[in-house]
Design goal:
Elements: E1 20-26, E2 32-38, H1 40-49, E3 53-56, E4 61-64, E5 73-80, E6 87-93, H2 121-134, H3 144-150, H4 153-173, H5 176-197, H6 201-210, H7 216-226
Parallel strand pairs: 1-6
Antiparallel strand pairs: 1-2, 3-4, 5-6
Helix pairs in contact: 2-5, 3-5, 4-5
Length: about 230
Amino acid sequence: MKIGSPGPGLDRFFVKRPLIPAIVQDWVSGRVLMLGYMSREALERTLSTGRVTFFSRSKNRLWEKGETSGNGLLLVEILGDCDDDTLLVFARPEGPTCHTGALSCFDVASTGEIGDRHAPPFETWADLMRTVRSRRSDDPGVSYTALLLSSPPGRVLKKVSEETAEMLIAALSEDPDKLVMEWADLFYHVAVALERLGVPWEKVMGVLESRRGTRGLEEKRMRDEKDGKGEKR
């Protein structure tokens, strides 16, 4: 289900009960942001406006996320589970989702300390990109990331090249710990290069997603033909 697609098919989600749980997941990072409940009207409103709306059980009314805080959720897509009794909502958050100021309601551990958690790998890359982006306003004399972002593109691209060479050397040395460290250094510099060049990493992932299901050699042939590099006969 995508924006602007409410219709009679929504009835199947509310056969068993008037409210169903809706799990919200960040479209870019994959982080689970919150759990809310939707009525049929809330689901229709979400689909028609593109802004995630729940039914508040405490207020007994429709509640658009962010209507007070301004930290709304912009809808990308909604999936129903196999039993049609739970929704998975993919959204782009406009700010911290949790009322505590945390990005996710699940970032608050049982101790009450925000950030006291072990982030899964898919979140780490998104957090790195977010951190790199935030360094644009930092002092280049203090922050290495800010220095690379404020320098000509060639500087960070040179670092990507150097880190690639160091990773290859580590691979040949057959030292697994060294190799992992060099891969981490390379990924960091790639993240900075993407930000410096203004290339959103989700667009790069979009290209990879578009190639899913296409065999590598076939995909390369199609690209070569598009670029005019096909084999001349």
